[in-house]
């Protein structure tokens, strides 16, 4: 048996969108189950996201601390953002987020991993990149606003982040998955064996 996720779509008898927000919406589908019965499933419709594990030459990861109102916490995170335009190239979006949130650019980009954040209640798909060969970006800094205006920025050794993840002190999904994937990749075939930055992403198809 091959352990691999596969696409599949069950019959939908009806669908409606009871709420539509600025970036996301809530959708209600009436889905036919294998026994022929139909049940309703409510979920958030999300454009998708990218995140960046930016690793410097000293073995530190660039992280930022930001207030997240739904969970009433300031969380340490890696740079991340929405795929604002349908079909947007995720690499370009990741490069933009790294510049806007940290004023940093990277020369070497790889795909670290792809995840569905909460597949039981949201269709958000996230591509987490590994960025290396970092340097300060040129030009003026991006003008942040709202929660981002209060962000703190730090570079933290991978081992310290790993300890915080396993100790239950760090909770952001992309940081946790990104750090664990980074450690696993380094102890396996190595970072250069990761997928190229423009590897296909069926969850959010894009033009290279």
UniProtKB/TrEMBL annotation:
Is Hydrolase found in the keyword set?
Answer: yes
Q: Where are the transmembrane segments?
A: none
Q: Which GO terms describe its molecular function?
A: hydrolase activity
Which InterPro entries does the UniProt entry name for this protein? NUDIX_hydrolase-like_dom_sf, NUDIX_hydrolase_dom
Keywords from UniProt, A to Z, are:
Hydrolase
Lineage, top-rank taxon, reads Bacteria
Which Pfam families is this protein grouped with? Answer: NUDIX (PF00293)
> Which organism encodes this protein?
Streptomyces ziwulingensis
Q: Where is the Nudix hydrolase domain?
A: 44-178
Q: Does the keyword Transmembrane apply?
A: no
Name this polypeptide is given: NUDIX hydrolase
Q: What is the lineage of its organism?
A: Bacteria, Bacillati, Actinomycetota, Actinomycetes, Kitasatosporales
Task: Cite the CDD domains for this sequence.
Answer: NUDIX_ADPRase_Rv1700 (cd24158)
